[in-house]
């Protein structure tokens, strides 16, 4: 069997095309959505991601607000920029690119963000809303996984999903999204403490691999016909991405989200969705307030 590709580039392009129309409608009402980013330090991967986010913004008509600090920045330096972005009227939503340099209290930085401007869905308030099933910005990579499966007609309802990884940006929140009534999956969360990972993987209709361990998932770990999404990022000695999924898995699975080209582009597209939705909410709120006072 050679798996079909869960094509993140094409799916993200379709989402961006829809957003272009929604941004034009907002602009016609005098509202220009703006994405802010804060990049701390000089990690080339993080810089690449941030530049990509601003390229995407330019494509769909979202304004860009870029803030940078050196790797030597203190907690106070970072918090000052966060406060500035909270108060900046041109910034509809923003992200703090992760990871932050060692020694910085990341949770404190995220908690200081205005939850109404959380474009990443990583503020405690946004994660709390997800737990409570309330409307709010969704974490970008997890929601990218859901949208990629939906776009390709992979059945989520009733599926057994095995997630490998428990990091805050991906692994922790994927089960929260997939077990909502609208998705209705059954989720097993595995991590470095899991005994007999291969046993769990072999039960899965859908595998989401977000461990950051090169080629952790081997062909013999996968049930024939499963969908396997590779979200792990490691780099080889030449800086090339090596995912969590061994290439031989494509001979066993029915669907594979490659890495690169799978969930990564969806992460970026979901970020834009969050910014546009925040601008639409703000615009509807302003229109409602005007109607009441008028
Ligand atoms: N504040 C955040 N920080 C980080 C997040 C996040 O969602 N919010 N996730 C990752 C990095 N990330 C976004 O920031 C991200 C990762 C991958 C891609 C992507 O498009 N990848 C490409 C390939 C990239 C390459 O060749 O290097 C792909 O998969 O095709 C976009 C964004 C950690 N930090």
UniProtKB/TrEMBL annotation:
Q: Name one GO biological process term.
A: purine nucleotide biosynthetic process
Q: Which reaction does it catalyse?
A: (6R)-5,10-methenyltetrahydrofolate + H2O = (6R)-10-formyltetrahydrofolate + H(+); (6R)-5,10-methylene-5,6,7,8-tetrahydrofolate + NADP(+) = (6R)-5,10-methenyltetrahydrofolate + NADPH
Q: Pathway membership of this protein?
A: One-carbon metabolism; tetrahydrofolate interconversion
Provide the residue positions that the database annotates as binding NADP(+).
165-167, 233
What Pfam families has UniProt attached to this entry?
THF_DHG_CYH (PF00763), THF_DHG_CYH_C (PF02882)
Q: Is Disulfide bond there in the keyword field? A: no
Keyword match Oxidoreductase: yes
What keywords were assigned to this record? Amino-acid biosynthesis, Histidine biosynthesis, Hydrolase, Methionine biosynthesis, Multifunctional enzyme, NADP, One-carbon metabolism, Oxidoreductase, Purine biosynthesis
Pinpoint the Tetrahydrofolate dehydrogenase/cyclohydrolase catalytic domain residues: 6-120
- Specify the Tetrahydrofolate dehydrogenase/cyclohydrolase NAD(P)-binding domain's residue ranges: 139-282
What's the domain of life for this entry?
A: Bacteria
Q: Name one GO cellular component term.
A: cytosol
Give the EC number(s) listed in the UniProt record.
Answer: 1.5.1.5, 3.5.4.9
- What terms describe the molecular function in GO for this protein? methenyltetrahydrofolate cyclohydrolase activity; methylenetetrahydrofolate dehydrogenase (NADP+) activity
> Can you state the subunit structure given in the record?
Homodimer.
Give the UniProt family note. Belongs to the tetrahydrofolate dehydrogenase/cyclohydrolase family.
Which function does this protein serve? Catalyzes the oxidation of 5,10-methylenetetrahydrofolate to 5,10-methenyltetrahydrofolate and then the hydrolysis of 5,10-methenyltetrahydrofolate to 10-formyltetrahydrofolate.
Protein name per the record: Bifunctional protein FolD
């Amino acid at each position: 069997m050679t798996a079909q590709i869960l094509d993140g580039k094409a799916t993200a392009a379709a989402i961006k095309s829809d957003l272009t129309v929604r941004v034009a409608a907002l602009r016609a009402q005098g509202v220009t959505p703006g994405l802010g980013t804060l990049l701390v330090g000089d990690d080339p991967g993080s810089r690449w991601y941030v530049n990509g986010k601003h390229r995407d913004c330019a494509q769909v008509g979202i304004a860009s607000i870029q803030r940078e600090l050196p790797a030597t920045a203190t907690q106070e330096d970072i918090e000052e920029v966060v406060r500035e972005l909270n108060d900046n009227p041109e910034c509809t939503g923003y992200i703090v690119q992760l990871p932050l340099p060692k020694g910085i209290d990341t949770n404190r930085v995220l908690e200081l963000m205005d939850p109404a401007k959380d474009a990443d869905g990583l503020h405690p308030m946004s994660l709390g809303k997800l737990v409570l099933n309330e409307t709010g910005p969704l974490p970008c990579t997890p929601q990218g996984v859901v949208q990629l499966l939906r776009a390709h007609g992979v059945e989520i309802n009733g599926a057994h999903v095995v997630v490998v990884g428990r990091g805050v940006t991906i692994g922790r929140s994927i089960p929260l999204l997939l077990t909502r009534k609208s998705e209705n999956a059954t989720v097993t969360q595995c991590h470095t403490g899991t005994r007999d990972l291969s046993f769990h993987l072999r039960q899965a209709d859908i595998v989401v691999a977000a461990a950051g361990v090169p080629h952790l998932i081997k062909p013999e770990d996968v049930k024939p016909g499963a969908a396997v999404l590779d979200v792990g990022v490691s780099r080889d000695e030449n800086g090339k991405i090596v995912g969590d999924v061994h290439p031989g898995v494509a001979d066993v699975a029915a669907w594979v989200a490659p890495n690169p080209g799978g969930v990564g582009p969806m992460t970026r597209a979901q970020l834009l969705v969050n910014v546009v939705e925040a601008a639409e909410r703000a615009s509807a709120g302003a229109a409602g307030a005007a109607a009441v006072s008028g």
